[in-house]
């Protein structure tokens, strides 16, 4: 039997707050973190809102000397979340041998700050001098490497074990947690810092997701009503940003050091659609396979799942496809399972979103409360399941399913359960 | 410290502070770059890049190593265990006047030499290089 894997620490920087407890409380309260977009000048844009991280101070959040000056905005969220998760778990560089600790993070490949590129391009055009590009300081070349924030996390922990960077867009942190789970199951490490970070609140991303028709343009004057997964009036997703980190440990090692066990990672499954780039299969295929795979991996039946933390993006296509998949996999049990989407409050944290869903599952398991799906005003008759509308609900959660899907047709399912000594 | 009206001490201090993300008050002349200020090799590249932009003096990391070794071949600079010998230490004392040769004798390895390099040493190198450039142009 493979080794069991537990979660012993959580950290978060999200549109709902700059730590995990504040984020969880925001989810339970049904508070919206979506507001006017301030990271860019939105004049001339169809979309002027996003779920932004607010009042964030990296220097105040983490100790110096972990390579922080090489981080861009997304990485700062990840590193701050990682530091919180390590403290929450009571873990430091001496907890295990360095080689027994690793990092697995989902993120986008980074790139130079866009405004900086624009400025350099303008300078080149104005002066006619190609060497305008040599204003690029040497260390800038680090900033757009995906693994730099992970490297900073590794230095915090003096972790020299497995390292994995995943860039599968909106499913990235789901893959990162799942692959960290596998590393621990297989004995490659005793501790993995896993999660994701992202910040696509840039003009290029607002423009591009807008061109794809993926973002809602209909609630610019009422930002808190814009993200409405599963509601009949949903017209697209809302960009969010943030970082979420989890400390995963091999069960026996965690018990030996007296760790506070928050939950168990029980199953992981992945699939590809091999279909269209941005359309979700309306028959739920792809999602069906990842859901079935992770539930089987956990040794459970669909009826054993008490709560689904939905991918629930608020696009017409995703929410239909995801609901269809749930109905097909769960059969009659689909009527009973509670389903909600944190994105209704935070917007879509893209590469970090699946890790936020794991945080949500951990909270539900430990507090016996399922956060709501906000903005349920007009039920979509084609969907018709229990999306926990607008108000959190008391509910004992023993097993939670987490869904994450991405453009390109990349799907991840995770099962996170209450920790029980004998399984 | 100045040449052609440029205050190289200020330029170097600012370059160090900007590259390392520290307060300029921390970039004191006697601070060692790789030791006291916790710089890595990539930071040194950034510091030299900023100095070039501000002072129009190009210095490569290899120039620093060359300055420190003063053209003495490796085998004459250190022993077979890579410990800097008397000849090496005498040369280092010329480039890095602040070092305590007696304290370092028999201990200092070639790898550690760069860690003795201070903000003041860098300023001296920049000043010297600027003077050489000006003389060549005259």
From TrEMBL, chain A:
Q: Which Pfam families match?
A: ketoacyl-synt (PF00109), Ketoacyl-synt_C (PF02801)
All copies of the Ketosynthase family 3 (KS3) domain together span 2-418
Keyword Zinc included in the entry's annotation: no
SMART domains, per the entry: PKS_KS
GO CC terms of this entry: cytosol
Q: Which GO terms describe its molecular function?
A: 3-oxoacyl-[acyl-carrier-protein] synthase activity
- Database matches in CDD domains: KAS_I_II
Keywords in UniProt for this one? Acyltransferase, Transferase
Which N-terminal residues, if any, form the signal peptide?
Answer: none
Stored InterPro entries: Beta-ketoacyl_synthase, Ketoacyl_synth_AS, Ketoacyl_synth_C, Ketoacyl_synth_N, PKS_Beta-ketoAc_synthase_dom, Thiolase-like
Q: Which GO terms describe its biological process?
A: fatty acid biosynthetic process
Family in the record: Belongs to the thiolase-like superfamily. Beta-ketoacyl-ACP synthases family.
Protein name, entry field = Beta-ketoacyl-[acyl-carrier-protein] synthase family protein
UniProtKB/TrEMBL annotation, chain B:
The Carrier domain sits at 6-91
Pfam families the UniProt entry points to: PP-binding (PF00550)
Designated name of the protein: Acyl carrier protein
Q: Which organism is it from?
A: Streptacidiphilus pinicola
């Amino acid at each position: 039997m493979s080794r069991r894997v537990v979660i012993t620490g959580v950290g978060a920087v999200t549109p709902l707050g700059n730590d995990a407890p504040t984020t969880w409380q925001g989810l339970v309260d049904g508070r919206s973190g979506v507001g006017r977009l301030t990271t860019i000048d939105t004049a001339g844009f169809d979309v002027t809102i996003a779920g932004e991280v607010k009042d964030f101070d990296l220097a105040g959040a983490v100790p110096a000397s972990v390579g922080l000056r090489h981080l861009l905005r997304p990485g700062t969220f990840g590193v701050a979340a990682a530091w919180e998760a390590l403290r929450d778990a009571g873990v430091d560089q001496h907890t295990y041998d360095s080689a027994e600790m690793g990092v697995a993070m989902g993120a986008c490949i980074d790139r130079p700050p866009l405004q900086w590129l624009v400025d350099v391009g303008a300078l080149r055009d104005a002066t006619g001098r190609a060497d305008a590009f040599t204003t690029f300081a040497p260390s800038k070349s680090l900033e757009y490497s995906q693994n730099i924030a992970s490297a900073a996390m590794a230095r915090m922990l003096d972790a020299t074990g497995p390292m994995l960077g995943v860039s599968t867009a909106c499913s990235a942190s789901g893959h990162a947690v799942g692959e960290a789970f596998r590393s621990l199951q297989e004995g490659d490490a005793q501790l993995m810092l896993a999660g994701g970070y992202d910040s696509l609140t840039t003009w290029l991303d607002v423009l591009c997701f807008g061109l794809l028709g993926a973002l809602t343009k209909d609630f610019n004057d009422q930002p808190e009503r814009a993200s409405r997964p599963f509601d009949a009036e949903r017209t697209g997703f809302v960009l969010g940003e943030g970082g979420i980190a989890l400390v995963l440990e091999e069960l026996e090692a965690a018990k030996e050091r007296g760790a506070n066990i928050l939950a168990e990672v029980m199953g992981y499954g992945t699939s590809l659609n091999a279909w269209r780039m941005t359309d979700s299969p309306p028959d739920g295929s792809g999602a069906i396979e990842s859901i079935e795979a992770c539930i089987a991996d956990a040794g459970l039946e669909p009826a054993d799942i008490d709560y689904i933390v939905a991918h629930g993006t608020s696009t017409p296509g995703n929410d239909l496809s995801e609901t269809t998949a749930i109905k097909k996999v769960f059969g009659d049990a689909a009527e009973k399972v509670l389903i909600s989407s944190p994105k209704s409050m935070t917007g879509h944290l893209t590469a970090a979103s699946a890790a936020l869903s794991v945080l949500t599952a951990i909270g539900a398991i430990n507090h016996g409360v399922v956060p709501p799906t906000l903005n349920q005003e007009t039920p979509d008759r084609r969907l018709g399941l229990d999306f926990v509308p607008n108000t959190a609900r008391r509910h004992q959660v023993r097993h939670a399913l987490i869904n994450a899907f991405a453009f390109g047709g990349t799907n991840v399912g995770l099962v996170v359960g209450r920790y029980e000594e004998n399984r | 410290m100045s040449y052609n009206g440029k205050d190289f001490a200020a330029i170097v201090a600012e370059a160090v502070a900007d590259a390392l993300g520290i307060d300029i008050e921390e970039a004191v002349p006697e601070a060692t770059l790789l030791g006291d200020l916790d710089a890595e090799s990539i930071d040194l590249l950034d510091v030299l890049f900023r100095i070039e932009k501000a002072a129009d003096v190009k210095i490569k990391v290899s120039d620093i190593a060359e300055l420190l070794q003063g053209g003495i071949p490796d085998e004459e600079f250190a022993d077979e265990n890579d410990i800097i010998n008397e000849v090496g230490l005498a040369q280092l004392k010329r480039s890095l006047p602040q070092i305590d040769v007696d304290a370092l004798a028999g201990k200092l390895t070639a790898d550690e030499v760069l860690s003795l390099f201070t903000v003041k040493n860098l300023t001296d190198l920049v000043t010297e290089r600027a003077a050489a450039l000006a003389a060549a142009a005259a």
